[in-house]
Amino acid sequence: MLLAASTQRTIGLVILAIVFIGGLVYIYFNIRSARDEIGSEIELAANRRPYMDDNELETKRLDLALGSSLVLLTITAITLPLYWLGEPGRHEGRDIDTDRIFTNRGEDIYVNGAQCVSCHGSEGSGGSVSTAITTEDGEFVAQVSWKAPALNTLLSRFTEDEVIHTLNFGRNGVMPAWGAGGGGPLTDQQLEEVVYYIRSIQIDGDAIAAEVDSGVRAGVEAKLRAESDADWAVELRDASDAKDATAWEVTLASRDVFGFDCVERAADSRCIADNDAAKALLEAETAHADALEAAVEAWLADVDAVRDSAYDAALAADASLDNEGNEEEWRFAALDLLSTPGAVEGQDLYLDYGEILFTNTAAAGTHSCARCHTYGWSFDATGPYSLELHGTDEPILDAYTQGGGYFGPNLRGGSTLEQFESATSHADFISKGQTIGATYGRGGSGGNGQMPGFGPNTDSSPVGPTIGNDDEFSYPATLTEAQIDAIVAFERNL
Ligand code: HEC
Ligand code: HEC
């Protein structure tokens, strides 16, 4: 396209040059050969010369005039359609230019102007911000590290209009208001430029799936390490407790926030202190890494088996479900069973899997539900704090009220059963999210589209000038249908 545009440009310039030079030549000769105009008198005045006679005018002169008009007409006839033919290319070229310019400016705002990068990480990979938690009366509670979601998957969750809303008004006081609408420093066009940049950093479906999966595995690992009765798990817990005990002593003794000097770094860059207990834990972790991985695989396979048994049970109740075209019905019949207390053996395990997805820690918790629906989860409120950094060494919460509501509503006590009469409509909502101004469920009123959609997302009215205005953008799903189902079952039992 660019090549085409440049040859067209060259041809245009050459034509322009020919016309210009031709014009000059014409004017030159015209002036030189010009004769004074004759008057209207029949008899020439004595001081006038006679003009050319008809013979002269109607042969050479006329031929010349007609001939040159024909040449000009031919040029026009050829160049006008050519120009018209090039129009879409020119349009596209301009769109590509605008796209590039907006994206570059957006990147500049992301990195320098607004420094989104300091909280959301480089290329939007997720990060955190240090912020003060206060009581309702404004009293200081603790200085915490608050997860800032990844933006390189943002457009799978939200449409660009919804993103603009968040950018305008910020979120929960920890994400500043950027747009003029919310009293922030950026103009509407600058917000659009940031969105163009965000468009350019979205990762693909495989990368998202790998991210979600790594979070799930971390969750299962943590659960097994905390709860499994296997010898390796008991050994790991003992080693971990021993390390915590000594690390704590070192912390108190040195008053050093992170405990101890690192004499070396483990492969995963954790600190190995000059501390026998820490070394023993690392050794135990290395020794049991295979056992842990195998246990995670087995646990996930058990979850699959529970789901399969629900599919089987649904089919036993209605043999038509495996007819062609009934995949949806089969899925939702199974989901109904998986959501109904006691309907399938192993349901507890399945709900645990739902909870692990609900609290997925990958990419700064981006793919979790807890970051919006569980108070304190975004700043690890049940974790230990260090007195020096945080002003308290007490956890802020003893335990989370999972799904108890924060930025998003309370999902507990059967409230989702009331809102969504079937698991089907519930799953559909999680997949699509809430759309600006649209109602959902039984009484969900039209908000600002702040509940993300976790299924595939199509944005049919992207912001900004250029291609965006008449094109659709499609983004891959964050969660698979099977993952959404597990979360739905978990929520319907909260
Ligand atoms: C001071 C730190 C900070 C800065 C700077 C910042 N953000 Fe945020 N942002 C956050 C935090 C924290 C959240 C999550 C808030 C919450 O958990 O309620 C967030 C949330 C968001 C969200 C919602 C995403 C989602 O999936 O829920 C978007 C979009 C966003 N930020 C974009 C931006 C952009 C673009 C910029 C730069 C113009 C920016 N942020 C600058 C801290 C920051
Ligand atoms: C970025 C914040 C955010 C995240 C992340 C989020 N939600 Fe929400 N959710 C909301 C908001 C806000 C609403 C309310 C929407 C409204 O009223 O317009 C909501 C509403 C809901 C509702 C409807 C509740 C009711 O009774 O009306 C359900 C169910 C729900 N979310 C489930 C989930 C699940 C499951 C996940 C994770 C897969 C999730 N949410 C992740 C913000 C979020």
Describe the structure.
The chain has 494 residues and is mainly alpha-helical. It has a domain of 270 residues. Helix content is 56%, strand content 6%. It has 17 helices and 6 strands. It has a two-stranded antiparallel sheet with strand order 1-2. A two-stranded antiparallel sheet has the order 3-4. Strands 5-6 form a two-stranded antiparallel ribbon. A hairpin with a 5-residue loop joins β1 and β2. α9 crosses α10, α10 packs parallel to α17 and α16 packs across α17. The radius of gyration is 36 Å and the shape is elongated. The two termini are 57 Å apart. The site of one heme C has 22 residues, from α13, α15 and α17. One heme C binds next to α3, β2, α4 and α5.
List keywords for this structure.
single chain, 494 residues, mainly alpha, two-stranded antiparallel sheet, two-stranded antiparallel ribbon, 17 helices, 6 strands, 56% helix, elongated, binds heme C
